[in-house]
């Protein structure tokens, strides 16, 4: 595992997400509520560019919502632009199939620099 | 009736049959119906009747010219006859469905349809389930025209020991069974711990699957009627989250064979991945719900030249989801041997022929030995 500097923190403001390339690997960097998350830019479904999709909330409907469709997880869900498969950025889990979980790369900030371990 | 050398070769295997039919003539139901509908049934009883085609009771649109020959039309008129014929087929336990009232969903008169369902249920209980004949269990008819009344009927018969399920008529039903208007039926069935049993029949109606009239003969209509109905109702139930909203409810899909099931499960999973946000009540893949709460009846079993193809379909679905059904005495019934001879393991064979059904219909006690 090697550490790679991928930019300065002000290049990844809160609420933003963008794809960086490290050693020919594309990785989506997400700043969610002030915390950075790094996920592979490859959808588990058909290998689409997952992290280029929109970041938004999603819907939930269960006993807790009174079986009404509710808006939840605002700003924490990325949707693959190819087929709409949703992933929880915080856990890497696929919402439709929670057993599927994306690899989560360790990302840290030191001296204003964003460092990715892979 | 000819059952032939039916049971031979099946040994002492316990056989539970998820779908057999009783002949429910209007004059038989008339004494069980309230006024004025009793008069309607008595009038229909005096009218000329064609097989599964009684206007005002089982309205159909028969389009094929009669061609002499062909195989016999069979009906079962009494519990005693049913017991004898099932025994000749080596079938120990049968779940009774109607003949004519397979088409009850086509009737537009709501009060009349609800009364027909009530009369049928009383007649079924008194004449068939309380007949003293062994191994006969029934499905309470839930009129889709009046879901609240259907729910009351389910509750009324919830403690009846020979009632094993709730029959959901599918031919001509509109809207399909996933609609929220039917929630009272699902709530009552879940509360009564009775599985809901979806059953269609070939009819021409303005409801899904409509336009069957464009097929020039019954061959074409028959191929699509049951299978489209089961697929559409499977999708309907999933797309409003009935299995999620009624998590203890059990479902059985009948008379469409099983070949459609892997296709629908895969297709549902694929589109769930894409459109999950439209159906957020499905918190797992549709196939996962299906493999927990849905069973699929074998008849009419697919007849590949290679029986291992059919075994492969069973394995794709999971043999624990498959229940044997004969559809006796109808024209395309399956003999138990058609299923029991498939190349599956002995354990899977026992599951398909009896064990799975006894889990689906879990109020039916396992007989100590063969009844047939």
Walk me through this protein's architecture.
The complex is a heterodimer of chains A (118) and B (372). With 118 residues, chain A is mainly β. Helix content of chain A is 0%, strand content 46%. Chain A has strands at residues 3-8, 17-22, 25-32, 35-40, 55-60, 70-79, 86-88, 107-110, 113-117. In chain A, strand 2 (17-22) and strand 3 (25-32) form a beta hairpin. The mean pLDDT of chain A is 96. With 372 residues, chain B is an alpha/beta fold. Chain B is built from 13 helices and 8 strands. The two termini of chain B are 17 Å apart. Chain B has helices spanning 26-29, 37-45, 79-88, 110-129, 147-156, 183-191, 218-239, 242-245, 260-275, 286-293, 307-317, 336-340, 346-360, and strands spanning 16-22, 93-98, 136-141, 163-169, 196-199, 251-253, 294-297, 322-323. The mean pLDDT of chain B is 95. In chain B, strands 1-2-3-4-5-6-7-8 form an 8-stranded parallel sheet.
